[in-house]
Design a protein that fits this description.
heterodimer; A: mainly alpha; MetI-like fold; 13 helices; 78% helix; globular; B: mainly alpha; elongated
Chain lengths: 313, 286
Amino acid sequence: MNRYILKRIVGMILVMFIVLTIVFVIVRLAPGDPASLMLGPDATPEEAAALREKMGLNQPIFVQYIGFMLQILRGDLGTSIFFNQPVTTVLAGRAEPTIFLTTFSLFIAVVIALPIGILSAYKRGSWFDQGALSTAMLAASVPSFWTGLMLQQYFGTELGWFPVAGYGGPDSTFFQRMGYLILPSIVLGIVNSALILRFSRASMLDVMSDDYVRTARAKGMSETRVVLRHAFKNALIPIVTVIGLAFALLISGAVVTERVFNLPGIGSLVVGAVLRRDYPMIQGTLVVVAGLYVLINFMIDMVYLIIDPRVKY
Amino acid sequence: MAGASAPNTEASLWKVLIQRKSVLLGLIILGIIAFFAVFAPLISPIDPSAMSVRNRLTPPGAAYWFGSDEFGRDQFTRLIYAGRVSLAVGLGVAIFSSIIGIFLGLMGGFFKRLDAPVSRLIDAMMAFPDILLAISLVAAFGGSLTNMILALSIVYAPRIARIVRASTLVIRELTYVEAARALGVSTPRILVNHILRNMVSPVIVQATFVFAYAMLAEAGLSFLGVGVDPSTPTWGTMINAGRQYIDHASWMILFPGVAITVCVLSLQISGDGLRDALDPRISRRL
């Protein structure tokens, strides 16, 4: 068991090291001088030189690389050019809508997809199953921002059921702010439910034909008990995996959904940073998001230990 | 690992295309969309950028099938011209990401020493959400059509690489590869003639999905304003332009959205059908 944990930790560190290297390379791929690009056409050569010096761009690339790695290790993500604040401070200030948007939509996706996936597997080949699979495929084919715009127009503008866009004023309460997240979460939840539905169905199908399910049936156990106690419990591993994978999908979705609903989250922050060529901000966001992905998947590996004792090899 | 244990020839691929109704349907719809895109100037003689201020925001009707936009441009014409760009991005990304992915996957799968670094690289690349990585790459390369194709190809290459690596690991151990080695066939030749040729089908299946994801991603990037030049009609830029007029000209958003959905859906149907037909074991699970 300790070997398993140790192996995962080493794997996680290696992947994180490559992630950081990729981020370092991406930011330095930009043709021309990043300092003058960031300052815009009005900047004087002196200003550009000062920024280059500040960012350490005059040093050899290898020294820059080591410096970048050490900086990240210290937990320092640099300073945003546009906000003139530490990247971590800016990210923390924008985290709330993104955290709640992704959490709510994951919850909605699981609530929709899991029961339908299980039922689909149970009634394999039926009209219900066919319908569920076709709907899932359709949901995965519609651009999320398009669904967002359409629902925003109908439920927000025309029916007035939900706030159309924004995140409330500076003095709005927590619950008022959460109200702004209902519609975006539904949009993102629907898109992500497709993946989870297909996975839970597939995973259930795999275990439904296993011997212990047949044994449970043979000893006269009720169908509900067979499906929920025996099959579902064993189908959980791949389902947990896909929920981890869905994180990347959710963040991608959040980037566009936040734009549609004008939410001041990390997604709209990074789009703004790209348009303004605020490289430290882009770099910091990439490190945090990819780091979170790696960490979440590590935690999922640990969850396996709890839900599947066979993993403790 | 579809098709890894039982090599599929090109002939069986064609058989699958004809036998599977869903694949055929998907391909026919795609074919129609591609036909419209390629022959856009013949299908609609109107100039896609011809403005007519008097006819701005005209609802769909006899004069303007899909309505007109804020400059009075014909939306139907713009839609089929936009299809050219959107399809070109999808196809370009499917091809380039396959090239990068095949190279990476073959290296990792065939050469045991390279396996660990290549696998970690794939894991690390997959840690970035696709839209986030794509906009960062576009920010670095600069926003143009070619750069967008390049950026998305890098984003989706790991998906191809994973499949190729897994298939290579299996095929590498098969007797005919061993026989080829014993006969003194050179490594590059083994890689291309004996390994790569036997995983054409799974790569095509995966490339079909990449085609679909790339079209969705292009629309997303154009919608965010970080993709191609906003004046270039793509389905994404059309939706972005229609956003301001959604209250009284919803057709500006409706048609491009339907176009993307139909295209992506038919690609996914084709990809799914192909995968099921090529590997019945997978069809039961996914």
